[in-house]
Every structure is written in structure tokens, then in C-alpha cells.
Specification:
Length: 382
Amino acid sequence: MTSSRERKPLRVLVAPDSFKGSLPASSVAASIAAGVRGAIPDALVTEAPMADGGEGSASAIAQGLGGSWQQVAVQDANGRRIEMPFAACTSPALGSFAVLDVAEIVGLPAAVAPPGARSTRGVGQAIRAIHERGFRTIALGLGGSSTNDAGAGLLAELAFICRDAAGRELDPVFDNLMQVDSVERRPGSEWLAELALIGLTDVTSPLNGPEGGSMIFGRQKGFGDLAQADGVLAHFAACCTRLLGEDRSRAAGAGAAGGLGFAVTVLGGSLRPGAQFVLEAHRLVPGAIDYDWVITGEGRSDAQTLLGKGPAMVARLARDSGIPVTLLSGAVEFDPALEAAFDGCLSIQPGPVSLEYAMQNAGTLLQQTARQVAALFMKARG
């Protein structure tokens, strides 16, 4: 005889991150969900696209909270005028707030200016424009940036004047930061005192040092001498420390987005793990999830996945709630700790394939793998 429990539809949470360069998190979730329904037609599947503070964070948060989209005109990292989207959201914890991805302004794919000439001024312009629309809390997804200026452009746009030894005002792009001799507060910046700024990070790197932003991420932004780049940001941070009376460069996440995390703390803002913020936006918190199975995923999984990335936080939440959790990824690099964190870590690739093939066919491969895993899950469940 079939029990009432066995007759209940399977409740599945699909909460993946994006497959960078291939599929946004929403498309990844939709592909996995389609595969699950293909094997289990009556399954109750909830899609909750994840992000960890990098690209796609604003979209994931807006989807979780039912936010609406607006645009403001800003300057990108190359100095060109662009229209930048941001989401207007409301949550029980924050009330009304705005959220944006800095990658929409200073993202690496759109960078054409030399690395040392790129500016974060546009991020400051976005903050001011959003504040002028009435928002007093603004969350920034800090990830995917092309800049490495410790947020100096943002700070100069909003709050500080940077001067050289002769007292001349400087445009503080990376190439000019070693010339900065002093930093002073910009008149008319008092409005920042009423602003709650939240930086959503996907890394815990401080601004400087062996684990700092320049040393870990500088090369992918086009910097060759990483030690020199690290020293440049340390010099600028020291100038800010003299003004503030305290060193904020050691904060976990200060090195995020080329030091934009540092700039957030200099302005009195806070840094939070982006994945945790997104989980809360989807109301996925301890004691509040009730599913039979959780599926997460990302483009590539390795030991770095466990360092605050979205899939790891989803897995921890599922495990704490006694729910089995499976990882589906474009590629999985074996790691004992990674394997222990999930009830199955699976690559969606059918065999040796080119990167181009894998990226172009990610949606189909996700759906096929999810269908196969779902069939196995139901068979094992009995």
C-alpha cells in the first residue's frame, strides 16, 4: 500500500548561481527545473536564482523581493555615458532600498581603457542619482569589476578631494594614486551621513597584502606587476587613514571589486556576504525552508566554492535543515571538502567537449543532467 507521504508531490528547491559567460542564474534555474519536471511531472519546483555579490546579484535580489527596475545615467569605467539599471525593492529588514551591480558600470567585459586609466566615478554618480530619487539605503553588488583603484574615483565623486604635494586636485585613477599626497573632505557631502550603504561581497580579501585584491584579482584586470599595484593601493589607503584616524583597509571584503569594498567602509557603509543577502531576499533562512530536495549549481566548482560562494551557502542551509542537496556544475574539480559538502557533485558534461560547446549548450546539458538525476533520486527514494 502506498502511504500518504509517498503520494505527496516532491518539493524541490532549485537555487543555482549563474554559469558566467553562458547563462544567468535565472536561466540556469529554469533549465534545471525543466529537467526535474521532465522526470517527475508532478514535482513542486521552486526556482530561486542565486548570486554571491557578483554579477547578477541585483537581479536575484529583485526576483526574490518582487522589485521593479529603473535606470540612471552614469559614466562607465572608460568615461563613456551609459544607462545603468538598478532595482527598487522592499524588505522587512531594510524597508525601501535600491540595489545595483557595479559590474553594470565598471564591468570587465566592457573595459577598453588601459587598466590604470579606468575610473569608478560612475559608481559614485549612481549612488548620488539614486539618493536623489529618495532612497536612503543602497546595496552594491561588488564583483566583476575592471577597476583597481581602491574606489578612489567613487570617493572623489562623492566625498573627498585628492591633492598632490603641490596642492593640485587630482583625478584619482590608478595611474595617479601614487601622486596623492593628501585627502580632504569635499564640501557638500554632508548628505552621505543619512545614507546606509551596503557592499555585497563574494570575497573576504582585504585591500592589501598577499591575499589582497590586487594580488588575487589584479592580473585578470590587466595588471602585470601585482606587487607594485598592491603598493599603489596601500599608499592611497594610508592617505585615507590619516584623514579618518583609523585604517579600514584590513576589513574582510575591502579588496572586493578592486577596492570598492574599501571605499564603502570609508564612507561608513557595511560589507556583507552577498550570498547570504540573496538567500534572505528569497526568504531562505534557517528554519524557514521546507523541501524534500535542494539542487544548486554554478559554472565551475572547486575548493573556492566553499569560500562563501552561493552554492556552498545553499548547501549549508539545506544540511542544517536535514534536506539532501545536489550540486550540478559545468565543471567539477575534485576536492574532498567539496564532495563532503554536497550529496553528489556532478558535472553536466557528457564527455570530453570543447569549452565553446559546453558554454553554447549549457541549458540543454543542464536540463538533461537534471532529468537523469531526478529520475535516480525518485528511484532511490522509493
